[in-house]
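Run log, item B.
One chain of 164 residues. Sequence copied directly from the ordering sheet:
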Amino acid sequence: MNAVKRKHEQKLQKDQKRNYGQIKKKWVVNISDRALNNNEISVLRKGLNFAITPKQIPTKEILASVESAISNLQRDQQDEVRNEVFCTLRQAKPPTEQNLTQDEKQALKDPSSDDEILVSKADKGSCTVIMNKVDYQDQINEMLQDRNTYKPITDKRRNPTSRV
């Protein structure tokens, strides 16, 4: 037992010695022509699944989600769940503390309004990639031209898009 504890302590000390600033820099990869400022990088480091603190409770969205989730329950169970959710929502208050600064909120709007770049999650790893849209489209077209990997569907009966 002591050997395991000692091994865990060694791992913890090793992790504490790492330079997390260098690791954080790798979380955002900018291969576009657009220069990003510190606030934009800070927001992008939070990841594409980061949720901004809402100004108000999204009551309609919550109720819609609950309704779709309880559709398979029996009528009395549905009513019970609705009642619980309704009581909880009546007492709920939006958070008072914001999880983004005003500069970060503005920085969040800037890259998304730029039609020349694309913000995406990397295929491997959990970093965010910023690239020129034109470059992205060129890469996609180049991949689709590879006849060893993809081949066009010429038979209309085998084309799945007409069914979809």
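Observations after the first pass:
- The chain has a mean pLDDT of 84.
- The longest helix spans residues 75-91.
Flagged for discussion on Thursday.
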